[in-house]
Amino acid sequence: MFARGSWRWSLPVLITLSVLSGTETGVLVRDTLAEAYLQVSVFVAATLMLLYGIENRFSVDLESRLANAGRAQVPLAAGLGLLPGCGGAIVVVTQFVNGRIGFGALVAVLIATMGDAAFLLIAAAPGTAGVVLGVSLVCAVLGGWAVDAIHGPGYMRPEARADGAAAPSARGRVESRPWLDRGWFALWAAGMPLAVAIAFQQDPNAWFGPLSEYEPATWLGFAGAMLALLMWAARVGGTAPAGLMQERSSALANPGHGMAVERPVQGHGLLALATRASPDTNFVTVWVIVAFLLFELSIAFTGTDPSAWFNIAAPLMPLMGVLVGFIPGCGPQILLATLYLSGVVPMSTLLANAISNDGDALFPALALTPRAALLATLYSAVPALMVGYSAFALGY
Fold it and tell me: What is the pTM of this model?
């Protein structure tokens, strides 16, 4: 359990030592992990579980449908990317990593996804959210088709395994620990209502009355993030209890080998769905934690005010929206959406950012296919600049 990939343990160890130090930095690290879990991981898991549940309920393989969709891959990928949060986009990235969809679909999903900033916009300004998401969807479909027309469907696509079997290599194998899977599910279930409250700009700590001063919601988020880190470091979790459902090798835990190993589907319980979703969720959680920590600690140590980035000439604001969109993760994008709602930045900047930002779906793409991820991100800047400056010219 501990011998393979011992370097992975450095991250949870350093985080634990920091939090136990009792310093301001330790509190910041704890709060950042809680934010990563409650703002990202919970929704990633929920989206994956929803898609897996649809597969089981209607006896369809959404991944195979997507892989065999031909030109419809691009609009299907864009539709998955449009789902608030990053779970749908991560499903598409997973399929690209496994060589089952084209580069145009990857570009489309990165253009369409707005990540967790979509929750904030839907809650605070649903009319604006409809416009932004609609424009993003159109840009995603047209952009994805354009990329496929220019490069062809096989451009930069990783080679898929012909046999569709999971790899036997221990490098990516995720072992079963049912008691950990149950604990993971319990924390997710407890965190879901807290995460929804945060998405709608509420403080769930206030729900606990006299206990709110102890920040129980924050500690639960921290516990969920740490469990995800530990399961990722130990490579455990993700194998469904015997006879419950189809067993799949995690595509992100086993890059290039995320195909199904068939077993009879005899149950569709939430625990089985959560168990299947946990390895990919844990993988994304690690990347999100690293990005959140780099962002928050750099601001804390340099004293930078991110809102000051937009104290620039008005014609440069759409460009700044695109550049902020290049930053992986949802934190900067949520900040920009907040600045729009506060009247600090115009609609043109929000549109440019929504199209160029890739949310947390960029993390697994960067980890597993960095060249394709970077090129797809650059391609997303083209419609972002076009739409942003068109809106700016129209006075928005």
Answer: 0.71
